[in-house]
Amino acid sequence: MHFLVVDWDFFFPTPAAGGPQGPHDDLFTWPVAEDEFHTETIWEARHRDFTAAGMELPQVTGWQDFWHRFRFSAGTVLVYADSNAWAGLLWPSDLGRPDECWDSVHLYDAHHDAGYRQNHRSFEGWKASGDGIRCETWMLAHHWAGASLHVHFPPWRKSLDRPREEPLVPVAMTIDDGRAPAAVFDLVFVCRSGAWVPPWCDEAFTEFLRRAPVPRAVFDRNRWVHPRPDPARMAEMKRELYAKVEKMNRHNG
Q1: Please, is 231 exposed, middle or buried when counting C-beta atoms within 10 Å of its C-beta (0-12, 13-18, 19+)?
Q2: Structural contact between residues 85 and 221, judged by C-beta atoms closer than 8 angstroms
Q3: Contact 80, 209 (CB under 8 A)
Q4: Which residue among 9, 180, 236, 253 sits deepest, i.e. has the most Cβ atoms within 10 Å of its Cβ?
Q5: What digits encode the pLDDT tens for the residues 74-113?
């Protein structure tokens, strides 16, 4: 049985993940955390920073014809959520096959999600840490169960040397060339990665899901807002509010 996982940031080029570099790379070196502040609130300030720098807002690219290459078994469904951590909790048992594990997991992502050495020295260290399954370690759970791991980095990334990849377990890593894996997939998971990809890409994410050639359902333990508040509208509302407060202060002064 085979599991396909797609992270929406696969389509969002950033210099920090090996994408094209430019004069405003510092605007992409943002901290990330999978909480409401980093998935929703912070994007208003980032929108302001891009605008102040005279940049067009960065967009997702290359997603329109993504699905046509893959083969799916009868009854395949697509599950979606905001965090890729949930992919570590999806198993053949969710398809009524409790005695099986995935033979392979194929991830299309700007990051490998198989553990990072700045957090754990080794796979054994991760197991002993008690940290559990997170967005950056969920593939370790499937490795532990015996699955072969395959990471397909986006074509906007030109080299595996920047950044250098050192997952904690064996992972077959390639830059996607548009060819299909040999696997026939039994389950698909897609994450929006709201801490990495901005809200102005949410409409495209909805369309990306709609174009998938299999039935779709939101992960039942996911809690999120979609689409997220528009950062431009949030900024406008702030300006209007501050103007009203200033006017009231002048009047009362």
Answers
A1: buried
A2: no
A3: yes
A4: 9
A5: 999 999 999 999 999 999 999 999 989 999 999 999 999 9
* Contact assessment for residue 55 and residue 27, using Cβ atoms and an 8 Å cutoff: yes
pLDDT in tens, 109-147: 999 999 999 999 999 999 999 999 999 999 999 999 999
CA angle 131, 218, 188 (to 5 degrees): 75
Q: Starting at the earlier edge strand, list the strands of the sheet with 71-81.
A: 172-175, 148-153, 104-108, 2-7, 184-191, 71-81, 216-218
Query: Smallest Cα–Cα separation from 148: which of 168, 165, 126, 171?
Result: 171
Q: What dihedral angle (degrees, nearest 10) is formed by the CA atoms of 37, 41, 46, 47?
A: 160
Interstrand relation of 216-218 and 71-81 (parallel, antiparallel or unpaired) = parallel
| Predicted structure pTM score | 0.93
Q: Please give the structure tokens belonging to residue 193.
A: 């990665």
3-state secondary structure 21-42: CCCCHHHHCCCCCCCHHHHHHC
pLDDT at position 241: 59
What is the DSSP secondary structure assignment for residue 165, as one 8-state letter? P
Interval 204-236: pLDDT, tens: 999 999 999 999 999 989 888 999 999 988 777
